[in-house]
Design goal:
The protein has about 90 residues and is an all-alpha fold. It has one domain. It is about 80% helix and about 0% strand. α1 crosses α2. The longest helix has 30 residues. It is elongated and about 45 Å long.
């Protein structure tokens, strides 16, 4: 749930940044989507780094790949929902 909400939030932030640029609406949608996904990639790298360096259990060691992929899917879904909102 939190990753879906973050996908929505970061795509909106991406759209606010894109609105400052003189680009087409389609390019703004792509920028907003890619902004949200890129922020999420860095978050997953942060989780991995914390697990490896500090010894936290942010990625639930027993299912690292499943946790990361589920997080990616939820984030991408949120970003897509937000972009569709802008299309309406």
């Amino acid at each position: 749930m939190i990753h879906t909400i973050s996908g929505i939030a970061f795509s909106r932030i991406g759209m606010m940044i894109a609105n400052m640029c003189d680009i087409s609406f389609n390019q703004k949608l792509i920028y907003a989507f890619m902004f949200a996904v890129t922020i999420h990639v860095f978050w997953e790298l942060f989780e991995f780094g914390c697990d490896e360096i500090i010894g936290t259990n942010m990625q639930r060691k027993q299912s690292i790949v499943a946790d990361t992929m589920t997080d990616f899917v939820a984030n991408i879904l949120g970003a897509i929902l937000s972009c569709f909102y802008y299309l309406l």
